[in-house]
Amino acid sequence: MPAPRVLSALDVARIQLYHFKAIVIAGMSLFTDAYDLFCIAPVLKMLSQIYYKKDSVGTPLLSTFYAIALLGAALGQLFVGYLGDRLGRRRVYGICLMIMVLSSFGCGFSVCTTRRSCVMASLGFFRFFLGLGIGGDYPLSATIMSEFANKRSRGTFISAVFSMQGLGILMSSAVTMSVCSAFKKAGERSSEKTRAEESDIAWRLILMIGAIPAALTFYWRMRMPETARYTALVEKNAVQAEKDMQKVMSISEIDEDFREEPHTSTCSYKLFSRRFFSLHGLDLFAASANWFLVDVVFYTSNLLLSQIVSLSNKPSSTANVYDSAFEAAKVAAIVAACSTIPGYWFTVYFIDRIGRVKIQIMGFFFMAVVYLAAGIPYSWYWLHEKTNNKGFMILYGSIFFFSNFGPNTTTFIVPAELFPARFRSTCHGISGAFGKLGAIAGTVGFLWGTKRDEEHKDVFPDVKRVRIAFFILGGVCIAGMLVTYFFTRETMGRSLEENEEEDIDN
Question: Where is the Major facilitator superfamily (MFS) profile domain (predicted)?
Answer without folding.
Answer: 22-492
